[in-house]
Amino acid sequence: MGGGVIGLVTAWRAAQRGLSAAVVDPEPGGGAARVAAGMLAAVSELHHGEQTLLGLNLESARRYPDFVAELTEATGHDTGYRRNGTLAVALDADDRAHLRELHALQQRSGLRSEWLSGRDCRRLEPMLAPGVRGGLRVDGDHQIDPRRLAAALVVACERAGVAFHRVWAERLTVARERACGVVTADGAEVSAGQVVLAAGSLSGRLAGVPDDVLPPVRPVKGQVVRLTMPKRYAPFLHRTVRAVVRGSSVYLVPRENGELVVGATSEELGWDTTVTAGGVYALLRDAHELVPGITELPLTETRAGLRPGSPDNAPLLGPTALAGLLLATGHYRNGVLLTPVTGDVMADVLTTGQLPEMARLFTPQRFTPAQPAGTARPASATQPAGTARPASATQPADTARPAGTAGAAALTEQPA
């Protein structure tokens, strides 16, 4: 379920394996990809405590060049993939110490990054503030334009024979203790041999999903600003530049088309997708400390989206305890990075029934409480009688569905 990049790549890869696939989503190609900056930053975004995810991130980054080449050949679309690297810089002594710790963690993890002096950083990127104290150069971190990626995946799915139902999915259909399709907002029933719930931050709100397999996914709001780099300023930045300013991360991602993406806030505010003056101010203030010349650039867009966060910030991939229901969600800030490997993993499990070795740590069942022997789930064990989740529970009561997010469905059937 879901027509964002994760649902689309799952449907595309499933169709390539000979499965009959369908995507249910009112706006395929929407979702968090409309907001994301598209940093493929497996190295520079390594965090303490998240080393388990590192292997999957690196494997997906390794697959990206071939993935993009295949997608471009299949569609003729330019995805904006660039191998221009990342420069993470420090603006004061505390930030410098933090960056040194990150460099040490990268080295212990066998990752390639280079420590630079402030002068060397400014030599690479002359627009940097004179107060930059040092930085990490990571040439292996690349970028892609998520909007172009999503558009290309829609075309790839269409050409591979994937069916699209451009409507909201309202309820999972369960029969004889097996997921077998969804009911859409217009009352239609879409049946399937296997159902993949890939609805991003809304994955935990689809009605009809038994409570014990409902994914523990929450929305994490992110606000982003887009600017234009006029040709007279070119080259404004050569690569992605990022830093931690006042304890908050800020990044500037330059595109070939002259766009500059500045992001992103991280806010635990439920389903709110309001762009706020405070959020935009904080982003531009921090970006100005990093690159003072940013205040001269035209402002072209502000937008907010919802990342699908999980309890351990890692994705949920593969079968659930409910037969026929699989998850591909909870990618948090790594959805675009993990697109290639997620498509391959889900295609493997849909065709073989088994998670590949590299994805077994990310089984959804790591969050499923063990049941005592002999306590199988009753056939109707979605919830106690009279307390069913309402059919509209893909969104909070009295609130509109967040713009650009889809509580929809990607469905697959075994070939005849």
From TrEMBL:
Region annotated Disordered sits at 368-416
Question: Which SUPFAM superfamilies does the record match to this protein?
Answer: FAD-linked reductases, C-terminal domain, FAD/NAD(P)-binding domain
Q: Name one Pfam family in it.
A: DAO
Q: Which residues are in the FAD dependent oxidoreductase domain?
A: 2-348
Q: EC class of this enzyme?
A: oxidoreductase
Q: Does the keyword Metal-binding apply?
A: no
**Identification of the protein by name:** glycine oxidase
Q: Which organism is it from?
A: Streptomyces echinoruber
